[in-house]
Amino acid sequence: MARRKKRERQAALLDLLEREPFLTDEELAARFDVSIQTIRLDRLTLGIPELRERIRALATRKNDDLRSLSETEVIGQLIEVNLGEMAISILDIGPEHVFSKTKIARGHHMFAQANSLAVAVIDAEVVLTAVAEIRFIRPVQLGERLVCKAVVTSNKRERAHVKVTTKAGADIVFEGAFTVVKVQQENARGWEETNFETGD
């Protein structure tokens, strides 16, 4: 990104953080082609808190309580949820998530973040995954932050479709289309007989 005048850059910074609130100072500096110190001064001028405070603020304003999972069962930190509509979580890739040799994140952690969010966003007591069509788009490295967004694309009485997109910075690294089924607690063991065979 070409260098901008200070006022123009600060306006663009506000706009960017409104759309992508999880960017680090390092990522912002790279986007605007300025130093990290410049970004910190811009944030100070604009009254924008550091990333940790922004995440904490977002997490405390999440709207709905989960029904299908407890919050601790969602992989990553749940940031926002509107049941039946959308949800967002973040996951910082640490040493426990990567292969020791390559420092590349193991795919099952990315899948687990997406799958748990696809289930959590549904407004029902028991929600199970029936179908998952997933795509790993690029490797994720140690230290990257994954921002996962689940959007309910259709929501019928017994099943729903959820599209999940995971980004690391500006890059889409994972996509998934999940079909989940809603079952009564007492029927959870037999859900596959009534849902897999009937389809949509």
UniProtKB/TrEMBL annotation:
Pfam families: 4HBT (PF03061), HTH_DeoR (PF08220). GO terms for molecular function: DNA binding; DNA-binding transcription factor activity. Residues 9-42 form the HTH deoR-type domain. GO terms for biological process: fatty acid biosynthetic process; negative regulation of DNA-templated transcription; negative regulation of fatty acid biosynthetic process. InterPro entries: DeoR_HTH, HotDog_dom_sf, Thioestr_dom, Transcription_factor_FapR, WH-like_DNA-bd_sf, WH_DNA-bd_sf. Keywords: DNA-binding, Fatty acid biosynthesis, Fatty acid metabolism, Lipid biosynthesis, Lipid metabolism, Repressor, Transcription, Transcription regulation. SUPFAM superfamilies: Thioesterase/thiol ester dehydrase-isomerase, Winged helix' DNA-binding domain. Residues 120-167 form the Thioesterase domain. It comes from the Bacteria. NCBIfam families: PRK04424.1 (NF003359). This is Transcription factor FapR. It comes from Collibacillus ludicampi. The lineage of its organism: Bacteria, Bacillati, Bacillota, Bacilli, Bacillales. The gene is fapR.
